[in-house]
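Journal club prep — side note

Before the paper discussion, L.F. wants everyone to see what a predicted structure for a comparable chain looks like in token form. Sequence:
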Amino acid sequence: MTKILILGGGFGGIRCALDLEKKSGNDVTVTLIDKNSYHLFLPALYEAASAFKGSLKNDPFALRLKKTICIPFYDIFKNKKVNFVQAEVCEVDLSAKKVKTKGGNVFCYDYLVVAIGSQAEDFGIPGVSEYAYQFKSLEDALIINEKLENLVKDVVSNKKVSPVNVLVVGAGFNGVELAAELSCRAKNISEKFNAKNKCSKIVLVESGPRFLPMISDSERAIILQRLTKLGVVLMENSPVEKVETGFVKIKNGQVLIGDMIIWTAGVRANVFLKSVAGLSLTDKGKIVVGQNLQAKDWKNVFAVGDNQGFVDNKTQKPVPLFAYMAIEQGKVVANNILKNLKGLKNQHYKPEYGVWVVPVGGKFALVHLWKGLRFSGLVGWLIRELVDLKYLVSILSFKGGLLFFWREISLFNKKD
């Protein structure tokens, strides 16, 4: 019996598990370990941070909100030959082919797929972990949601001088999406408490000379116009020197006051990888992999998603960390493990990443497709929703995917 062990239930890990289960025989067991009981649907995380509480009455524990962003692994692997184990991995022994969890359980494997995800990158800037809100988990999103509403309540009750200053540090895709949606959320809160124009000032801070430097100038202009319309202030060329309670200091000496400081400036590979003896890592802490996504010096170990340090031959740069690319990597790894079992040659990973979608508040998104084709506004938003639906029905049953999609769209779009 061949044992395949997958660490992490993100986009790449789930796709790898489902493909292996579908294409392998009865002589293969597939086990996936994740510390959570659910797959976090990250494309909707910014929605959870800005969800309209008027839609969540009588739901003090945000259970309904959680059901629109958390997909139980039970639902994904129901009637599938995939063993799911909820546990946190504490030790990996590559030589012995064993993985140990904090609960004391030991799992042996013939093939290992590392897909444990990433963590926030603070770039060594003082005060980030102590004074800034992170934006990586469901808990982070719910805390941001609650904090914003409480701040506005303080303004309305005259406990605080208006406006509420929200600083979003990092103008990448996540930062742009969150800042835009928080602006929409702030407007809704203002209307709820009859505090129009008193609510908040959203400032998006970018260290580089341009936000979203990987896109074209014309596309940046579309997004900037939308952000401006929503009242989001963009500050480029503003590298943060340190974060303190209630303010951020820029390297030029400027001080930005913030009632809430949210850090979206980047991610790094999980530091747990450094504890794995014999694992070759890049200078960014990612696993060094070959053209088939195998870890260097370990033919039975593969990496996908935020853990892999794959360098594109065409650009000589690491590939970007998009969800759909992690899914594709999961497919490639599953296929290569199956090929290995049959004694066949591995498939090379050939990344394609000319497609992206960035929601910019409400029913507005900018979609960049192949050969420069793009759509913006409501059409872009509709395309983005269809992309979400396609993913959901690919990991759930068709009925289950539709139901999850309907719960999400019916809840989040009440505020738009």
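L.F.'s comment for the group: The domain at 128-266 is CATH 3.50.50.60 (FAD/NAD(P)-binding domain). Keep this in mind when we get to the figures.
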